[in-house]
Amino acid sequence: MLGTTRYIALVGGGKQPKFPQNKVCSPDDSDSDPWVFITTDTYEVQIWNDATQVVATSLEFKTPIQRVRISQSHLIVVLLNNVGIYKMKSPPEKIADYETVNNPFGLCALGKGIVAFPGRAPGQVKLFETVTGNVSIIPAHESPLRALALNKKGDMVATASEQGTLVRLWTYPSCTKIVEFRRGVDPATIFSLAFSTAGSMLAVTSDKSTLHIFDLPVGLQASAAEPDPKTHKWGILSKVPLLPRQFSDTYSSATAKFDMGEEPVGWGPQSKSATFNAGIPGVPGGRPTKGLIGWLDDQTLLVIGAGQDARWEKFTVGVDETGRRAIFREGWRRYLD
């Protein structure tokens, strides 16, 4: 959906669409069924005007559409190995087109004047400036990307690989690393990364059913700060020089459990692989989305999951009785019958 406007991006098509657009009236009025289907393998993006109930504009593609991002000025269409950038008009005007590594989860972030998406090498982030057309590349990880996000200003990028142990924060346009956060020691599937509205926190969810809140550094020098044993997860061990880096890394300031829902036996977590797509046709990643984060304001966020047991949970970020950062669960609801 385009903000809170009447415009919604819809994706469909394929060989057996639930609501086919390729129905035409048969010229033989004596037919018992006056409608026939024209075989097509095209996939379509429609910009739907919900007030007038008409399609404002549309685009057709030959391969499945993994993700769409829209703003008042731009339309981004993500395919498995391609990202198309268009000016939002009728019809849309293509201004750039880039090849990518396999991108089954449709990773793409559209910010203020900038688009972030995977590059042509695993773990690489490509940044496209919509005004100038300038392109920057960040070699963010050695393994394929699993999640990325832009802050509201478009001057910070958060990335995570399919390893899921580290989350890295980069500045734009300098493309330098500010800080590296440790989600945990064991590998995990990162479901979602999202900056708070004021850009002071970063929320992260994973298939461990855990929501993490990381406090973002103030100024570029914050990344060089020494860990404080009083607040660090490993206490005084964070200051011992010969221990593995896991003991001195920056961990989340608060965590909470979210519910992924009671899916059928055999559903399993979303695939950890960021380069292989299998499962439900037409669904990015092949599995129902879980752990999707949406900030309502700088202290309140929702964690949303699709699937057979689709639900959302509401959390607020504050401080507990000891004065430490804490996450409080405010409520939840199943949103599908």
TrEMBL record:
It is found in: Vacuole membrane. InterPro entries: PROPPIN, WD40/YVTN_repeat-like_dom_sf, WD40_repeat_dom_sf, WD40_rpt. It holds the Pfam family PROPPIN. It is a peripheral membrane protein. One of its GO terms (cellular component) is vacuolar membrane. Its main location: membrane. Keywords: Repeat, WD repeat. SMART domains: WD40. Belongs to the WD repeat PROPPIN family. This is WD repeat domain phosphoinositide-interacting protein 4. It comes from Trematosphaeria pertusa.
